[in-house]
Amino acid sequence: MPENLPTHIQKVQETARQFIAKDLLTLESAIDDETDESRISEIRESVREKSKQLGFFYKTQPEDCGGTPASTLELTMLRELFAASNLRVANDIFGPGPGILANAKGELKSLYLDPVIRGEKRGAFGFTEPDTAERPTWARREGDDLLITGCKTYVTGGDTADFVSVLVNVEKSDTEAGGTAMVVVDRNAEGLVIDKKFSSLDGSHHVSMTLKGVRVPVSRVIGEMGEGMPRALGNIGNVRLQVAAQATGICMWVINYLAEHLLAPHRSGTPLGQREGVRLRFADMRIDTFAARSMLYRTARLTDTGENVVNETIATKVFCTETAGRVVDMAVQLIGGQALVEGHPMERLYRVVRSMRLMEGASDLLRINLVKGCLELGKGRL
Ligand SMILES: Cc1cc2nc3c(=O)[nH]c(=O)nc-3n(C[C@H](O)[C@H](O)[C@H](O)COP(=O)(O)OP(=O)(O)OC[C@H]3O[C@@H](n4cnc5c(N)ncnc54)[C@H](O)[C@@H]3O)c2cc1C
Description:
By secondary structure, this protein is α+β, with helices and mostly antiparallel strands. It has 9 helices and 8 strands.
């Protein structure tokens, strides 16, 4: 539950509230022209600077890269709180994290992880295969190299990334074992072709790419050969909890926004909040959000124990994002047509929450994984 946080996290929470009230609101209101890119990047830089001064920036970064990593509970509280501010500038608070490169050593650390943490390089994640793929992306060994062939789609930020961490199936050779591997491939590597750039309705940008025998040294395999899928899913697990925290934060903002609307005068002469039918809908939104937040904080606390929380994280991601979908949808309904007008905050949130039920695992696929965890692997708590 979000209550009874340890004292040190409560202090961080208070600092974050003041950061929102004193700095972020002012910086957000300074965005007067959405198309003025140089002004927007100046504002984003101010957010990062202030976030560094207050220490938030470093909370997502590993200690051996100069960061001061926060616990999952602390990060979950912060992500939810910032999402509940519904400020676009809140997207720039945290420094780039290691993601799939966590604990990378040697060349992978010096060439990729360190520059990512310093903000000098950006990576993308190549996991999803297009439906048209004849065979999942695969690689064969040639000496100390891998030759990678296949296609990936929905690679977010793939157009501007410096490298892509790609999930491949490595063929076994006479002397070496095969299996899945996450391999770092430079975006400008010979044979990597961007086939298509596209945007999704939440405003994010993606690419589809083909890898035509791209040659990569075996040293670019993250971790061990054969560990690709568990690594990819481990990384996705962290991101799923982030998405869940963002979803409950959005629910909180929407509920407060809607409460004001329900109390305001309505043309019928009776504020909407006086109508029983409206009250019932509002009650459901609050009940759902209460349940979602309880789940989110329970899973965050369990994650910090180091125990297996794959099933709990799946359950939380599905429930919190589906709750956000229902809450935003009902808020649009209760606010009426004005909520769908371009530029209205609900119109943007409607698009944002819709993508959450697909990104980092579609809800039904996660349900199926959850049941496999329970029936075949004996995992998962109630
Ligand atoms: C905003 C956004 C950002 C993304 N970023 C990335 C990224 O950076 N990198 C990346 O690799 N991918 C990314 N993705 C892709 C995302 O991971 C996939 O969209 C998601 O995993 C679902 O896969 P799919 O789209 O291929 O749908 P499918 O797997 O085809 O599933 C479609 C639907 O079919 C049904 N279904 C499918 N399989 C089953 C089954 N076995 N049993 C029952 N029902 C089933 C479900 O209802 C499911 O929702 C992103 C997606 C979005 C929306």
